[in-house]
Write a structure and sequence with these properties.
The complex is a heterodimer of chains A (305) and B (391). Chain A is built from twelve helices and two strands, in the order H-H-E-E-H-H-H-H-H-H-H-H-H-H. With 305 residues, chain A is mostly helical. Chain B is of the alpha/beta class and 391 residues long. In chain B, helix 7 packs across helix 8 and helix 7 crosses helix 16. The longest helix of chain B is centred in the middle third of the chain and has 15 residues. The relative contact order of chain B is 0.19. The chains are: A mainly alpha (305), B alpha/beta (391). Chains A and B meet through helix 11 of A and helix 2 and helix 16 of B.
């Protein structure tokens, strides 16, 4: 943005001494922020890419060197990686889909709440305010056969080992994710609802539109920008799922997400080369998701009246 | 000077008492300060390796699980034990235990306490302890699943490696025959795996066997639903406190045999102390180790927390019978005959994950034809030794 404004006067062909010095000042004022950004984001990314093409394992300090794309070949030919990708996509799709439906319902309720708006909004937000690890422990202990209350509920076998089997472990992980982040979805959608002009609904009502028609013809189209932003945020967030899995199964029963696989290579095995390759691949997947949202669905704000 | 000892917080206070005794008797030469690590072994290791990987010089003494020696020594994180103190700290130590502190023939750590698993059984339900796994499963099936369950550790974690390793060793073979050489005799390994599969698919396997740990096993035994349990000696004082009725009928025997013609090879645990290569006080740290592992201190630790001493001669002292009433000799024999895990490999962490991946869930091992599990185990172990692939 600053670059665009800075080059604008250049079009005239004559750059006066004043504009030049102003441009210089502008660059100098931006410089600290740009350098800071480079330090905290670009440097680690480049460092990880550098590590990912090396053989580097802290436990074997004498064996290191450049290996090209070997680490990537190892990761991409491993069934564990593809299983983790499947698990992550599965958790992301299921949890985001359910969050969207529940979040939309909550947003509509909050939007229409006549009294106690502040209380309703605050109480809905509580799960989002809880630290993810703490929430994961709460869900873990609730479902743990020796300490939890869930197995004492009717219709559930007393000795059901929820984390002993893949799909039931997924169910608990996904429930914890939904419980934790639906408020975030609801809040973003609520912000979108607040921007819709009430007179549109009144006009529709006069024309005899049903509640469902008003929702599908007015609310949804006008909510699209907010909806896409909410979906993008939540999809990227869900794709990095780590805490709940780490606390509940540590990746046992084939429930690894891609982040868990990265953690295991980097922090358990200290295999920095292989682990960095995993991290770079996760980064690429996240970029792909973001691009798909921006290009595929279009984030352009529809031209209002 | 202050020596920082990074070790998990052993709750009984015995370790702290030993450290205080040594600090006091050093005449001000050193003062041992505790820096506590998490209680879970893999979390302990992660914190240590993160600091050592960053060459943190605030670590002096390290409390290492017996399986970490190879990895830490190969990475250059721990100092070899100097010749001057070697005789004092190795005297009378069980050879099985001392082996866990060696890497490529050199001593890199000093054992301070050991641990081993025994077979715990109900003397009111069986007349005599079973000698073999096959006998035990048969006895349990006669008692029936309401009271005859057999408790083991088969969740996907280090405890499963402990069990698998002892089963394979008791069958007469081993996982490795050198730091990077695979052993796993096919016929003998098949016997070990088939025995595990038989138990897991028997009606007397606990319903949660695929997520069982030391603690779920203890709880299962204390609930009365089980007649047999493989576990560490901590279950004995625990039952005394939590389940007095079970405690009255509780008796210990040696880890059962897999092959009736071969002695069993019980699991081996415990802690070794090492000195960090980045420590600024190495000489004092080794002096402190020399004091910490004295027989009196081993006895202090055993009395407070029930942790078995590493010196055979400590078991001749009468005080040990207060700690292990009636089974002190059994613990001595179990540690003496124990089979260490394949920790001579510096890639032990990979190896452990590879073994867990191959044998978990144990309910999936076909007792009649364990070949597919064997093939997976062999492939996984080979990949781990070569450090290939993701884990």
């Amino acid at each position: 943005m600053s670059a665009a404004t800075a080059t604008a006067p250049g079009k005239t062909g004559k750059v006066t001494a004043k504009t030049r010095s102003e441009r210089k000042l502008g660059l100098m004022l931006c410089a600290p922020a740009v350098i800071m950004m480079l330090l905290v984001t670009a440097y680690p990314i480049l460092y990880a890419i550098g590590l990912s093409v090396q053989k580097k394992d802290l436990r074997f300090p004498t064996e290191s060197g450049f290996v090209g794309l070997d680490n990537y070949v190892t990761v991409l030919t491993s069934s564990l990686w593809w299983q983790a990708v499947f698990n992550t996509v599965f958790i992301t799709v299921v949890s985001v889909a359910i969050e969207l439906v529940i979040g939309m319902a909550i947003a509509l309720i909050m939007h229409r709440a006549i009294f106690g708006r502040g209380v309703v909004r605050t109480s809905v937000l509580i799960p989002y305010g809880i630290v993810t690890v703490v929430a994961a422990f709460a869900w873990f202990y609730a479902f743990d056969p020796s300490s939890g209350f869930v197995n004492h509920l009717p219709l559930i076998a007393d000795d059901k080992a929820w984390f002993g089997e893949r799909w039931s472990a997924f169910a608990v992980i996904i429930m914890a994710e939904i419980w934790k982040t639906t408020p975030f979805m609801a809040l973003l959608l609520l912000a979108g609802l607040a921007t819709i002009d009430e007179s549109l609904y009144e006009a529709a009502r006069v024309d005899g539109a049903t509640a469902w028609q008003r929702f599908t013809r007015i609310t949804l189209p006008l909510l699209k920008p907010a909806l896409l932003v909410a979906l993008l945020f939540r999809t990227l967030d869900a794709f990095r799922v780590f805490d709940s899995i780490f606390i509940m199964t540590k990746g046992a029963q084939n429930t690894e997400s891609v982040s868990i696989v990265g953690y295991q290579q980097l922090l358990s095995r200290l295999n920095l080369g292989l682990g960095s390759a995993v991290s770079v691949l996760i980064f690429v997947l996240v970029l792909m998701i973001a691009t798909a949202f921006v290009k595929g669905f279009g984030t352009t704000v529809p031209k209002g009246n | 000077m202050t020596l920082n000892w990074f070790i998990f917080n052993e709750p009984s206070g015995g370790v702290q008492a030993a450290a205080k005794q040594c600090s006091d008797s050093s005449n001000g030469a050193y003062n041992i300060k505790f820096e506590y690590l998490p209680s879970q072994a893999d979390a302990q290791r992660e914190q240590l390796v993160r600091r050592l990987g960053a060459e943190d010089d605030t670590l002096d003494l390290l409390g290492l699980d017996v399986v970490w020696t190879g990895e830490f020594a190969n990475a250059g994180w721990i100092e070899p034990v100097p010749a001057a103190i070697r005789p004092a700290v190795t005297k009378d130590v069980f050879p099985s235990v001392l082996n866990t502190a060696r890497f490529e023939g050199r001593l890199y750590a000093v054992p301070i306490w050991s641990n081993t698993q025994l077979l715990w059984y109900r003397k009111d339900r069986v007349k005599e302890a079973p000698k073999t796994w096959a006998q035990m499963i048969k006895m349990a099936e006669q008692i029936g699943r309401a009271k005859g369950q057999i408790q083991v550790q088969a969740n996907k974690y280090e405890g499963l490696v402990v069990w698998t390793n002892s089963m394979i060793a008791s069958a007469g073979t081993s996982i490795l025959s050198g730091p990077d050489k695979i052993a796993l005799d096919p016929r003998k390994t098949d016997l070990a795996l088939a025995t595990m599969g038989t138990l897991a698919n028997s009606p007397v396997a606990p319903p949660n066997i695929d997520t069982s740990t030391e603690d779920t096993a203890r709880l299962g035994f204390e609930s009365g639903s089980s007649s047999f349990m493989i576990n560490y000696p901590f279950v004995y004082p625990s039952a005394k406190e939590n389940a007095p009725a079970v405690f009255k009928e509780m008796k210990a025997a040696k880890f059962p045999q897999v092959d009736p013609s071969l002695p069993s090879k019980p699991p081996l645990g415990g802690i070794n102390i090492a000195v960090s290569s980045y420590s600024k006080h190495k000489a004092a740290a080794f002096e402190a180790i020399k004091c910490l592992v004295k027989p009196e201190n081993q006895l202090t630790i055993a009395k407070a927390g029930g942790l078995p001493p590493v010196r055979a001669d400590v078991y001749d002292r009468p005080a040990i019978n207060e700690v292990y009433p009636g089974f002190a000799d059994l613990i001595r024999a179990s540690i003496r005959d124990a089979a260490p895990r394949p920790s001579e490999s510096p890639a032990y962490q990979d190896l452990s994950l590879a073994i867990q991946d191959a044998v978990h869930p144990v309910t999936g091992i076909d007792p009649k034809n364990p070949t597919s599990t064997y093939d997976k185990l062999k492939d996984n172990v080979q990949n781990a030794i070569d450090r290939k692939g993701l884990l």
